[in-house]
Design brief:
alpha+beta; three-stranded antiparallel sheet; 69 residues
């Protein structure tokens, strides 16, 4: 289960993107108005799922771990 955003128009469950990216979702949606509020659920957007797989397979935990300071 993940924190997801459900598309108002397509009813797909997307993964949110980082706030610095300028995008609302990992698959490239940029319009926050077409997304519902964050909630827990299963990701159903195939593009978001594939983007997550690429990210998780290409970095080590210590490369993305928050550092103090």
């Amino acid at each position: 289960m993940a924190t997801i955003l459900t598309g108002v128009e397509d009813d797909e469950n997307h993964l949110p993107a980082g706030w610095l990216s300028g995008l609302t979702t990992l698959c490239g949606q940029a319009d926050e108005d077409i997304m519902g509020d964050p909630h827990d659920g299963d990701v159903t957007c195939e593009v978001c799922r594939e983007m997550a797989r690429v990210i998780f397979q290409s970095v080590r935990l210590d490369e993305v771990k928050k550092t103090e300071g």
